[in-house]
Structures are given as C-alpha cells and as structure tokens.
Amino acid sequence: MSSIAHLFESGEQARQKGHFLNLVMLARVDGTISNQENQLLKRVAQRLSLTDEQVQEIKDNPQDYPMIPPVNREERYERFIQLIQLLVADGISDIEEERMVKQLGVALGFTPARIEEKFPIILEHLRKGMTRESVFEAVI
C-alpha cells in the first residue's frame, strides 16, 4: 500500500489492520501458519472487512502496520480473546506463543496482573470449546 493511501485511512481501519497483523505474527511464531490458524485468520479478516489484497499486503509488509490499541474495554477484551483463540486454533500452544500473547495483551492496555488473572480463564474456556461470545461474557 502506498504511503499516500495510509494517510487517508481512518483510525478504525488502521486499528483493524494492526490487530490483524498481531494475529498473523502470533500464527507465525512457531515458524508456520497451520490450516486451523489460517482458517481463523480468514474469518477474522472477513469480520474486520479486510479484502484479500489487504490481507496479503499485511502479510507481505508487516512493518507498515503498527499496533493501535482499542480505546474501549470491550474491544480490548475481544481482541485479547481472539489472540488466545488463535493460540489454541491448531491444538498446540507453546511457551513462546503464550509469551507473545501476554506481550500483546500489555500492548492492548491490560496490566500484567490482569493478564495473569484472565489469560488462564480464557484459555480454559476456549479449550473447552466455548464460543468467543460466551468467553467474553464470562470474563467481563
């Protein structure tokens, strides 16, 4: 994407792309994006109204998309839950992936204490197969 086009993006578009980039980076931590992770990324991209071209641009040029944290509490939780959902998407989570999720949680505006409190609850609920919406209601 040209730098001129970046100038005309809304703050919301930039936040969505930054969030999607975080998900892509998390999926790549173990060196590869699994089929399950890729399916989740596609669903999130659709929910964020990102085109296939925008998704590819983000994957190809990650340095062009900074993380812009959400301003409200609900959106911060929604994004944190999505990060953890991606963590468990392939059924395998390692220490490096968990560390990255927790770092991104801090970047979203959560305190380390809040992350240590909510992370295991969210992780357990998602591993039990609860929907993202149910998990959201359980932790808010």
Structure report:
This protein is mostly helical. It has a single domain (3-139), classed as Orthogonal Bundle (TerB-like), CATH 1.10.3680. It is built from eight helices and no strands. The longest helix has 18 residues, at 11-28. The chain is globular and about 35 Å long. The relative contact order is 0.14.
Keywords:
0% strand; 140 residues; 71% helix; single chain; mainly alpha; TerB-like
Short précis:
With 140 residues, this protein is an all-alpha fold. Helices cover 71% and strands 0% of the residues.
User: How big a fraction of the residues is strand?
Assistant: under 5%
Distance between the termini: 37 Å
In total, how many domains does the architecture comprise?
1
What is the correct CATH architecture? Orthogonal Bundle
What shape does the CA trace take?
globular
CATH class: Mainly Alpha
Predict the CATH topology.
TerB-like
- Quote the average pLDDT: 88
Order of helices and strands: HHHHHHHH
Sheet/helix structural class: mainly alpha
Q: What is the C-alpha radius of gyration, as a whole number of Å?
A: 15 Å
Largest sheet: none
Percent helix range: over 70%
The number of helical elements comes to: 8
Low-confidence stretches: none
> Can you count the beta strands?
0
